[in-house]
Write a structure and sequence with these properties.
Blueprint: H1 3-10, H2 17-29, E1 32-37, H3 43-53, E2 58-62, H4 65-75, E3 88-93, H5 97-110, E4 115-121, E5 124-127, H6 128-135, H7 140-181
Antiparallel strand pairs: 1-3, 1-4, 2-3, 4-5
Amino acid sequence: MTDTATAEVRAPRPEKVETVAKIAERLRGSEAVFVTEYRGLTVTELASLRTSLRPAGAEYAVYKNTLARFAVREVGLEGLEEMLVGPTALTFVSGDIAAAAKALRDVSKTNANLVLKGGALGETLLGAGDIVALADLPSREELLARMAGALQAPLTKTAGLLQALPRNFAYGLSALIDKQAA
């Protein structure tokens, strides 16, 4: 390999630098990124997938693998490079990570052409099994509701105890008055 060929492998062509910067910016701005293979999906199926990801705050995008590799290296997620083989797409998640993973898992269950490859949650690399495990998590709203319920339960018990003290005192006082009156 010549020095010129080596230089071309290490840096994108000038006209592609903007695309690499855009991908890198999206990687930095996302809480998680998932890598999928979409070989064989129709345009309609891709549109349906994008629509199912939107409520979770996720966006499904297809880029050239070489440009995505440059961006992944720039961001420091080199572990994703090996997943960028074949027709791959990136799912950038800025919202509910579990809901986005659930949407991808559901589509991959009903359509064998969508294959989960892996991804990254922050700086932690994920395998396909990790994405499925994330998909099994309850949604953010459900987790918040559970947490609110857990916080509310002791307060409700305390309120009940505090109400019981004066009520029981009143019952006892009423019984004492009734006993003395009799």
